[in-house]
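FIELD: query
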Amino acid sequence: MSRESKKFGVPDELANLYDFANTLDVRHFTHHGVPHPQGDELTHARELVAWMSQRGLSPASAKITPAMLASAIELRTLIRDYLQCDPIERSRNKDAARALSKTLKLFPLVVTAGNDGMVLRSARDDALAGLSPIVAELYDGSKNGTINRLKMCASDECRRVFFDRSKPSTRRWCMSSLCGNRMKTRSYRERQRNAG
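FIELD: result
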């Protein structure tokens, strides 16, 4: 669990998935006169190894090939595409579900018995096995419904994945005071222009 996932109250059982989806930062707004810098934490194999190692998903000595990095980026892209869909629409969006399913086949899981009961573990035995816990979180979250609280900010200038802690689970923005306020202000100004 990262400082970021703790700060925003993401449950431990979704923290790696949340962090992985947000390794791509496409925010492009200006706040208090300062433009937000966009970034990608996974542009090189060594960055993916470091990211997994920091979370205890893989040893720092893991070897990631360019093909493995491409598979990891594809997984992240398709997870983000899936989370971008409204939770009610996720099962209905056949294209997003089909594309994600195809990529998930690259990260097979097996059930093993242990001291804590049954556990989903990676069937891979290479460095990308470190991403299998993210796939397991995706699976577990879909089974217990917590994945429906992982959403993508509705602001086109943000697109950050957030965990909706609201009781009715109806939040649309990662931060109402920032993205929500900006969108509401923009809509208000648009209505004023159209009315005048």
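FIELD: remark
The mean pLDDT is 89.
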